Amino acid sequence: MKPKPTSVSAFFDQLGPESGLRLFDAFADTRFFIKNTQGIYMHASRVMHLAHGIADPSGIVGRTDHDFIPAYLADHYTRDDHAVLAGKEIWGRVEMVLRHPNCPDWYVTSKTPLRNRSGRIIGLAGVSRDLQQAAKIATPFVQLTPVLDHIRDHFASPVEVDSLAQLAGMSARSFQRHFKKAFQLTPTAYVRQFRIGKACQMLIETDETITSIAIETGFSDHSHLVREFTRTINTTPGAYRKKYRGT
């Protein structure tokens, strides 16, 4: 006689919330978290604590992103959270994160709403994984690893889609299709986002002029950076710097 099917919810009721959540600590390159509708962390995996240099295993619980993450990054996370809490799912979002001590890196993040038994959204759950590590072992990322490495190391230089396609061993058309499927971004949009992320970092962490930052992050000139930055971040580089540095 076949065993009677057991619902997923019943299984986790038997497993227990603490045991179930602790399983995520086994993934050394993956951050797992749960937030309530106010953006307050209800759970964060051990890897996430270590990434932020927090020794206390419950040190993130009860806090929001703005309590321990720079505001210019926390604002982006919070904006996505609001969309998820309104019912949207986010899969494979490439975004800048920080590793302790304040080392920027790129992760792939997915978030989904959490609902109670009546269907009301009561929070969200998310996973965030190092982009390079994900690319090394996960399909369809694996063929794109040389492309990601090239963009990371040469983002300030002209980046042609045909050249990226050659690195991936694909035709330009096939490459663009695979890339869009993997990252929900075209290769051109990914490069632009990468450059904007670097510009955000430099605006906060350096005293370089906006013109210098434009050149160092791959934009043709001051106006080009201002135009693309404003389109992506909804504010100018100067206003962004003033907001987060007060200068």
Unreliable stretches, pLDDT < 50, 5 or more residues? 1-8
Classification by helices and strands: alpha+beta
Principal-axis shape equals: globular
Number of helices: 12
Give the biggest sheet: 5 strands, antiparallel
Order of helices and strands: HHEEHHEEEHHHHHHHH
CATH-level-2 architecture of the largest domain = 2-Layer Sandwich
Question: In total, how many domains does the architecture comprise?
Answer: 2
Text of the CATH class of the largest domain: Alpha Beta
- Tell me the strand percentage band: 15-25%
Structural features, described:
The chain has 247 residues and is an alpha+beta fold. It has two domains: 20-131, PAS domain (Beta-Lactamase), CATH 3.30.450; 139-245, Arc Repressor Mutant, subunit A (Orthogonal Bundle). The chain contains twelve helices and five strands. Strands 2-1-5-4-3 form a five-stranded antiparallel β-sheet. Helix 6 (145-154) crosses helix 7 and helix 9 crosses helix 12. The termini are far apart. The model is unreliable at 1-8 (pLDDT under 50).
